[in-house]
Amino acid sequence: MTLLYLDASAIAKLLRAEAETAALERWIGQHGGMRRVVTCDLAQTEVRRLLHRLGADEVE
After folding, report:
1. Nearest to 50, CA basis, from 7, 4, 5, 9
2. Helix H segments across the chain?
């Protein structure tokens, strides 16, 4: 099974519309979809901070 690694900046593109969001979504779809995505502990922290800045509820 091939895993796709996404860093925090790529994940951010999936959480809010940016210029590259559509292209990233197509790329993920062409490479197995979201069920094969992994990231690192640092990205988890960075994404939580982004969600907080965007006013999202606390993520568990």
Report:
1. 9
2. 8-15, 21-30, 41-54
Q: Please count the structural domains in the chain.
A: 1
Residue recorded with tokens 């490479």: 31
pLDDT tens, 4-59?
999 999 999 999 899 999 999 999 999 888 888 899 999 999 999 999 988 876 55
For residue 26, the enclosing domain spans 4-54
In a domain, 18, yes or no: yes
Distance CA 32, CA 19 (A): 22
Query: Is residue 28 within 8 Å of 37, Cβ to Cβ?
Result: yes
Assigned token pair, 11: 């994940």
